[in-house]
């Protein structure tokens, strides 16, 4: 003892020597405590050596009680002990059987330390033995789960290290009632539960539906649960795991009988997934078109226009050059298929300033469909190769053969068709969801259902443009949808909120 206190010998070396032979057999509890206090140091900096020594003390079943037990509890809380997990777990298991309340206090103190210290013992470490925590769990399952969940709420990191371990050791099916009970206390506690769930384990949908029903408007919670449903699988092609996720959600809708709020969430999720699946299919088709087109002698047909527009929409402008030669740019810019924004993007890509023809205010439009039928003489030389092109013109080169077709503007007729389609959709939804009481719910249902059908989505974008484009159209819509009806309010709110970003 004198050698240790005079710092003439390393305390850890003393502890190491005492592990061999029968040195401890002749000591009583008081003498052993006196020795351990000297080895541990004033700040318990050698607590790991002390805990390992306790393992030797317990081997012949010597008692750890009174002041010796109190000192043992303190050593278990010490820092810089992560390399002795087994000995800590065994000592804690021995002590907790005589003092279960102290065991739960120790669990909480050690987990709080995990938030700032990485070298102290973690009693829920999923990679090591956990007999201490399992004893607590068998004694009080609710408390053994809720303590880690509450501590995880204090973690400043987005993904708590505590949640990661707890996710791997809980019995989700057996403990679902406790998890739901904890989640319903507050939105933050619900997020804490979401971080430890797995769709591969039992009662996932039961827990998820209960949480969504309690917090239907919390987007963070819906995003966390959605990620669990659509967790990316890096060992599968993207399209394959997206298709699998769509099937999972559809099956939950059909077989799990979700409550109203959860059904809206799942319908919104499946709509988003179908859009991603469609985009992934389109991306593959764009790649196929790009790889199959030869560099020369290419027609500017509908398939190539579609591929170019898809690349522009997805922000992959640099790939357009694989589908379009600079000499073809004037032909593309003269086409009505592309929007002004798309034409600006193409001009920017090729760094050209090309004057665009002024659009006519006449309702009819004239297109060149062929170079073989109708001859129009002109003294002006050709400004570009018109062969195979479908373009708008103000003049033609001498010798050219043009065929003209006139398309009469049918805006008002189109509006009536689109409005009738929209009215039918609202009527069907009103029959399907008769209990909707406010326009917010109605709007969300309309939004989800429309996005499930890309053709509907494009048609209602056109309807919105026509509505915004004229007073007469706005009056007609107002006649059909009374604002005293939640579905009418929801329909008008939907048209006001539709954005062209998906076009």
Write up what this structure looks like.
With 503 residues, the chain is mostly helical. The chain is 59% helix and 2% strand. It contains 24 helices and four strands. The chain has helices at residues 2-5, 11-18, 29-40, 47-58, 66-76, 85-96, 100-114, 131-139, 141-153, 161-169, 176-183, 187-194, 204-214, 219-229, 238-255, 260-292, 302-313, 329-333, 340-350, 411-432, 439-451, 454-469, 471-480, 486-497, and strands spanning 365-368, 374-375, 401-402, 404-407. A two-stranded antiparallel sheet has the order 1-4. Helix 3 packs parallel to helix 5 (66-76), helix 4 crosses helix 6 and helix 11 packs antiparallel against helix 12 (187-194). It is elongated and about 100 Å long. The N and C termini lie far apart (82 Å). Residues 352-410, 469-476 and 499-503 have low confidence and may be disordered.
